[in-house]
Specification:
Its cofactor is K(+). This protein is an alpha/beta fold. The protein has 3 domains: 61 residues, Transferase, Pyrimidine Nucleoside Phosphorylase, Chain C (Transferase, Pyrimidine Nucleoside Phosphorylase, Chain A, domain 3, Up-down Bundle), CATH 1.20.970.10; 246 residues, Nucleoside phosphorylase/phosphoribosyltransferase catalytic domain (Pyrimidine Nucleoside Phosphorylase, Chain A, domain 2), CATH 3.40.1030.10; 88 residues, Pyrimidine nucleoside phosphorylase-like, C-terminal domain (Aldehyde Oxidoreductase, domain 3), CATH 3.90.1170. Helices cover 45% and strands 16% of the residues. The strands form 4 sheets. It has a 4-stranded mixed beta sheet with strand order 1-4-5-13, with helices on both faces. Strands 6-9-11-7 form a 4-stranded antiparallel beta sheet. α10 links the parallel β4 and β5. α12 packs across α13. The longest helix has 17 residues. The protein is globular. The structure holds uracil. The site of uracil (URA) has 9 residues, from α9. The site of uracil has 9 residues, from α9.
């Protein structure tokens, strides 16, 4: 087989066989296929797509490009969750203790931030002492004993995806549905969970800008999961503005604590409870969505959910005192208030610009390997539909950098005001099972 012939075949819109796909993935993982040929191939996929069988084969080949985690030593149905990524998305921090509180085992493996702000692992590391490097035995013991553990993703998990994602990132081929679907699902399947709940974000802060595309991505991933024997549900959720009020790392931990204490932002609470409810259904604890949602609300009200987060922090070596006193989390030197320059209502907030602004303040990585400042971030005081008067604070920037003019400018560009009040946004835009 020759790679050039397979690129040609895909360029002409033909379907590839399982053997051809395995040849490509194995050859690329072993450095036998160079980046320039793989770039041409991904661009051909971007334009010509792949059919469902090709996507499943592509995913499976990436799963087997490295180690697969065996979680069979954990009792019960292990349910994982994945988000396609958004700004202010701290849902994993909430669902992990919440779902574990009702007895569903969550063995979570997470990556570092790929986008403008940190990933779940980065956020947790803003808690002093929190360890994400757990040995296999420790990880499994924690899940069997406490129903929860979170660890950094092993370097050898779906290595083909790691290499391919880095290539796509610099060849304008990230936002292709077959490539995103196979990338996400290869990591989830290699991580060993029995069931998966996917949070597919749609809007200005997401890869998928339209509802139609987001639904197609959701359906593609659900089909891959089911064809590879993983019960999979996808929820399409709104990302037309950042989720909740906090964007950053330490401040997102604080906001997750607020939700688990029952005093969190309404949008974030709704999305987190919806995803957690479907996880408990796949985990076999509840059969009915409304019942699951109400029971999880009760778990929050009773104080059990926030205690469970404290337990997670304790067993992973972090300082549990931050849960009762979030002021112990890293704090920035500067807090800059951005004020409204018009009277009216907030019409939109471009989530991507807010994410870039947070990165400029130090909350994210400009490039792989950069250090993150856990104290840096943004608090959105006003969100879509809120009334504003000239001089009202619309958001607060937290930073240790001295030059934050560009970050302020990005925020000013992100906010659009209007004279009319918009109604509340629908948050849950589809459920695909
Ligand atoms: N997240 C992933 O893991 N992969 C993609 O391709 C896009 C988002």
């Amino acid at each position: 087989m020759r790679m050039v012939d397979l690129i040609h075949k895909k360029r002409e819109g033909e379907s590839l066989t399982k053997e051809e796909i395995e040849f490509i993935i194995q050859g690329y993982t072993r450095d036998e296929i160079p980046d320039y040929q793989m770039s041409a191939f991904t661009m051909a996929v971007f334009y010509k797509g792949m059919n469902r069988q090709e996507i499943a084969d592509f995913t499976n080949a990436m799963v087997h490009s490295g180690e697969t985690i065996d979680l069979s030593a954990i009792e019960g149905i292990k349910v994982d969750k994945h988000s396609t990524g958004g700004v202010g998305d701290k849902v994993s921090l909430i669902i992990l203790p919440l779902v574990a509180s009702v007895g569903v085992p969550v063995a979570k493996m997470s990556g570092r931030g790929l986008g403008h702000t940190g990933g779940t692992i980065d956020k947790l590391e803003s808690i002093e002492g929190f360890r994400i490097e757990l040995g296999r035995e420790e990880f499994i013991n924690h899940v069997n004993t406490y129903k929860m553990a979170i660890a950094g993703q092993s370097a050898n998990l779906a290595p083909a995806d790691k290499k391919l994602y880095a290539l796509r990132d610099v060849t304008a081929t990230v936002d292709s549905i077959p490539l995103i679907a196979s990338s996400v699902m290869s990591k989830k399947i290699a991580s060993g969970a029995d069931a998966i709940v996917l949070d597919v974000k749609v809007g200005s802060g997401a890869f998928m800008k339209s509802l139609e595309e987001a639904k197609e991505l959701a359906e593609t991933m659900v089909e891959i999961g089911n064809s590879l024997n993983r019960k999979t549900i996808a929820i399409v959720t709104d990302m037309s503005q950042p989720l909740g009020h906090e964007i950053g790392n330490a401040n997102e931990i604080k906001e997750a604590i607020d939700v688990l204490q029952g005093k969190g932002a309404e949008d974030l609470t709704t999305v987190a409870l919806t995803i957690a409810s479907y996880m408990t259904i796949l985990g076999g604890v509840y059969t009915d969505f409304d019942r699951a949602y109400q029971e999880l609300e009760k778990v929050i009200k009773s104080g059990k959910a926030v205690e469970k987060l404290k337990q997670l922090v304790t067993i992973q070596g972090g300082n549990p005192a931050v849960i009762d006193n979030p002021a112990k989390l890293p704090q920035a030197a500067h807090h800059i208030e951005v004020k409204a320059w018009e009277n009216g209502y907030v019409e939109s907030i471009d989530a991507e610009s807010v994410g870039i602004s947070a990165m400029l303040l130090g909350a994210g990585r400009q490039k792989k390997g950069d250090a993150i400042d856990y104290a840096a971030g943004i608090t959105l005081s006003k969100k879509i539909g809120d009334e504003i008067k000239i001089g009202d604070t619309i958001c607060i920037l937290h930073t240790n950098v001295e030059d934050y003019d560009q970050a302020i400018q990005m925020i000013r560009n992100a906010y659009v005001f209007s004279q009319e009040k918009l109604g509340p946004k629908d948050l849950i835009l589809g459920v695909i099972a």
